[in-house]
Specification:
Strand content: 15-25%
Order of helices and strands: EHEHEEEEEHHEHEEEEHEHHHHHH
Radius of gyration: 20 Å
CATH class of the largest domain: Alpha Beta
Strand order of the largest sheet: 6-2-1-7-8-9-12-13
Shape: globular
Number of strands: 13
Number of domains: 2
Largest sheet: 8 strands, mixed
Oligomer: single chain
Length: 360
């Protein structure tokens, strides 16, 4: 765990001067809003969110609105007369009219743009786009100077299979860092997001330690992991066992943790672990199943796969269960349950199963 206490900086310490979040969806808006407590934040995303954010900031609800005390230092001098500059604005938005009420808290970010502006020297870049958009995002970031200017570029996607394309687009000079996100967030409307808690696991490097420290200053959960590669594979396996079931059933994460579905979860994790072993990563299926059930049973989040289906968007199933469906046979591992779940999600997404949006 990163200590909240300040200590003498080591020679290799990384200090971020600003944060650019590329992909202002659920996770991007939530992290950008909370990190605006401690550093100037630029959000880049779709017009529907950016226009709302420019008008009244990011509105954060759920259990993530005020969790943690954080630090309010380091940004106050940037607060000016412009409504787009500053740290955080408590508007007392309790009007309950569905447009910014219900006790949500407004966070004013430094900039909100539809395109990625030039990356400032020493910036932390968080890439929060969908897995299938990573290559495009990496090329845009390269054009914005991220490879030269950014102190660290962190990709926060579900799934696996996009890494080589991202690295190729950014070039060998890019300082890429790895983190594993267990933080849940749900879009509640234009520029509105609900945070549902969860931690960020950061690699044990100078950039990873700096990222974890920044999150803790913002009142979020973070810890350093020595074996971040293994933690990433664990998260991928958990996503494969959880996300399709929530999407098929149309329920929040915690409602899938019932005894009747335990054999399905166990089978998915077993297949994922077998593929991981062939790729040099050892996972313990039984403890991993227990960890998944503990995390999910405490989560009221609507995970990203169900959010995508509800919004009529493409899902990331081809980078989750679909990855194991493809990769398993190449390695001599049968993955029938992952394959079946991927097929069902594709059919639902194509509108071929009479699936109706639930009332969440």
């Amino acid at each position: 765990m990163v200590s909240r206490k300040t200590s003498k900086a080591s020679p290799d310490a990384v200090r971020f001067g600003s944060v650019t979040v590329f992909g202002a969806g659920a996770l991007g808006m939530f992290l950008g809003a909370r990190l605006s407590r401690v550093l100037p934040v630029t959000l880049a995303g779709r017009r529907v969110h950016i226009e709302a954010i420019r008008q009244r900031g990011v509105l954060v609800g759920g259990i993530g609105a005020r969790a943690g005390t954080g630090s309010r230092g380091g940004v106050g001098s940037r607060v000016g007369v412009s409504s787009r500059n500053g740290i955080r604005d408590r508007d007392g938005l309790g009007d309950g009219d569905g447009t910014g009420g219900g006790g949500r808290e407004a966070y004013r970010v430094f900039r909100a743009e539809e395109t990625c502006p030039p990356i400032e020297p020493g910036a932390l870049c968080l890439v929060c786009v969908k897995a299938y958009d990573v290559g495009k995002a990496a090329r845009i970031l390269a054009e914005a100077g991220a490879a030269r200017a950014a102190a660290a570029i962190v990709f926060l996607q579900n799934g696996i299979g996009f890494e080589d394309e991202a690295a190729g687009a950014l070039g060998g000079a890019a300082r890429m860092a790895t983190a594993v996100c267990h933080t849940g967030a749900t879009v509640a409307g234009p520029g509105m997001v609900d945070g549902w808690g969860g931690e960020m696991l950061c690699e044990d490097t100078a950039a990873g330690r700096a990222f974890a420290g920044l999150l803790i200053r913002a009142g979020l959960e973070a810890r350093i992991c020595r074996d971040i590669k293994r933690e990433r594979w664990k998260k991928i396996a958990m996503n494969c066992a959880l996300n399709p079931l929530t999407a098929i059933l149309g329920v929040r994460n915690r409602l899938t943790i019932v005894p009747e579905l335990r054999s399905v979860r166990a089978a998915v994790i077993g297949e994922c672990a077998a593929v991981a072993a062939k790729m040099g990563v050892r996972l313990a299926p039984r403890p991993l199943l227990t960890e998944l059930e503990a995390r999910a049973s405490a989560s009221n989040n609507v995970n990203s796969m169900l959010q995508d289906i509800l919004a009529g968007r493409r899902t990331e199933v081809d980078y989750l269960n679909g990855f194991f469906e493809r990769q398993g046979p190449r390695l001599g591992v049968r993955c029938p349950v992952n394959s079946a779940l991927a097929a069902i999600i594709r059919a639902i997404s194509a509108g071929r199963m009479g699936w109706r949006p639930p009332a969440l």
